[in-house]
Amino acid sequence: MTTDHRLRIASVYETLHLGGDEHRLLNFVRALDRSRNDHVLLCLEEPPAERVERLGSMRKRFEEHGVEVVM
Description:
This protein is α/β, with parallel strands linked by helices. It is about 35% helix and about 25% strand.
């Protein structure tokens, strides 16, 4: 007997900057089988507004790949 269930994966970051670790996580997210896995990204702090204005945010990129981003 098999049960159908989705694996819920959570990643926790202090804040969501443009950086190497965030790009590594984005690559992981792109490779996930969406039919079997859900992913939520928990960010403990909002990135500084001036940094987002200057560099942008990766939040939209994660959301485009079906990741729930909670700040």
